[in-house]
Write a structure and sequence with these properties.
The complex is a heterodimer of chains A (254) and B (133).
Chain A lengths: L8 E5 L4 H12 L3 E6 L7 H9 L10 E2 L8 H12 L4 E4 L14 H29 L2 E6 L12 H21 L4 E8 L5 H10 L2 H5 L8 H12 L1 H4 L6 E4 L7
Parallel strand pairs in A: 1-2, 1-4, 2-3, 4-5, 5-6, 6-7
Chain B lengths: L1 H16 L20 H15 L10 H7 L5 E2 L2 E2 L1 H10 L14 H5 L4 H18 L1
Antiparallel strand pairs in B: 1-2
Helix pairs in contact in B: 1-2, 1-6, 3-4
The chains are: A alpha/beta (254), B mainly alpha (133).
């Protein structure tokens, strides 16, 4: 099925993480041009460039920007720079995030700040800056990568879960504000996905969690990436906004 | 120059809200007469910011009055003080005076913004930009 994403410009934060990289690959396979955000050394994007080479995708389709999401005051400049280079931003995927496993009573003040800053505030600021040109275009799709922990489970990850709950509520509230400007906003709540970020969790729990998951396996980055394509495309999701999509193999049914 | 700004503001409002340009007069209140909402306002300001390479904030409307008051409070618990109201009358001659009664909030003043006042905000920002270069 042609998702009509081949002329689109996709801005992706957290592009060097496991899920982020999967999302980059999925959009590239749809012939979209991606602008992945990375922090620090550009070598972090080497696995993606190698994958592109192996799949015969031109390097030109990936136009990375070195940007630290914590530098919120520079978000406006980043968006301006992307607009100058590429003329528009059709889709924003907010995939950057960081979890913290720690009992609530051991959280330091700065832990709360860090969790909120990385998972919520920086996402909100980047979204605000991207929305301005999207409003002019009268179109756009924003996909926030949230977490199953935003509304289920969450023992030992309280601050992270609360920040992700904020992302879901932001998604819902913003969608009702932006609908009349032709902009759709949705969130995806992944369950356990096989990435470096979830390695510790899956290692600690062994096969217990997998056995309890109705679909009998952990998720893969491409499971999230495909949900992302679905929500990004006007062909498949033009009437969907303000929704929370759980992609968890059914574990939240327990 | 002034007329040119008015035309651009008129275009920005028309494009953002689908209102016929002829209906957009200098004295039209954006929120009350033209029925725009705060999202439209962000859209209009972004268009003008891009057009003139300036930064506009709705709160700029009170800026000069606040500056004039110095250490005196402009508002207490979001209600504009008597001195704040006087300063607004002096600094924003186009604001409808009958609306500036004690008890109004900062938000209500923002809702009084007219097309002409928006043009003035752009003009002031352009002057500031020229002076700083």
């Amino acid at each position: 099925m042609n998702l009509n994403l081949d002329t689109k410009i996709i801005l992706i934060s957290g592009a060097t993480g496991g899920i982020g990289e999967g999302i980059c690959q999925a959009f590239l396979e749809e012939k979209a041009m991606i602008v992945p955000l990375f922090r620090g050394h550009s070598e972090r994007l080497n696995p993606l460039f190698t994958w592109m080479e192996n799949h015969g995708i031109s390097k030109d389709m990936c136009q990375p920007e070195n940007f630290d999401l914590k530098d919120k005051s520079k978000s406006k400049k980043l968006v301006q720079s992307v607009l100058e280079k590429h003329g528009k931003i059709d889709i924003l995927v907010n995939c950057a995030g960081k979890s913290m496993e720690k009992p609530f009573l051991l959280h330091e003040d700065e832990d709360f700040n860090e969790m909120l800053d990385l998972n919520f505030t920086s996402l909100a600021v980047l979204t605000r800056e991207v929305l301005r040109p999207m409003m002019k275009q009268r179109s756009g799709s924003i996909i926030n990568i949230s977490s199953l922990l935003s509304h289920r489970f969450g023992r030992g990850v309280t601050a992270y879960a609360a920040a992700k709950a904020g992302v879901d509520r932001l998604t819902e509230s913003l969608a009702s504000e932006m609908g009349k400007k032709g902009i759709r906003i949705n969130s995806i709540c992944p369950g356990v996905i096989e990435t470096k970020m979830s390695n510790a969790l899956t290692f600690n729990l062994g096969d217990q969690l997998m056995e309890r998951t109705p679909l009998g396996r952990y998720g893969k980055p491409e499971d999230i990436a495909q949900a992302c394509l679905f929500l990004a495309s006007e062909k498949t999701a033009s009437f969907i906004t303000g929704q929370r999509f759980v992609v968890d193999g059914g574990i939240s049914l327990l | 120059m002034e007329n040119n700004i008015f035309i651009k503001v008129q275009e920005a409002i028309s494009d953002s809200c689908g209102i016929e340009k002829e209906e957009i007069k200098g004295h039209s209140s954006l929120f009350n007469d033209l029925n725009i909402d705060s999202i439209d306002m962000v859209d209009i300001l972004y268009t003008l910011e891009s057009e003139y390479d300036i930064e506009l904030k709705v709160s700029d409307i009170n800026k000069e009055a606040i500056q004039e008051l110095g250490d005196e409070p402009f508002e207490i618990d979001n209600i504009i003080t008597e001195k704040g109201l006087q300063a607004l009358k002096r600094k924003i001659p186009d604001i409808p005076k009958e609306g500036l009664q004690y008890g109004i909030s900062v938000h209500e003043v923002i809702r009084m913004i007219s097309v002409k006042m928006l043009c003035n905000m752009v003009e002031i920002k352009l002057l500031e930009k020229t002076e700083s270069t």
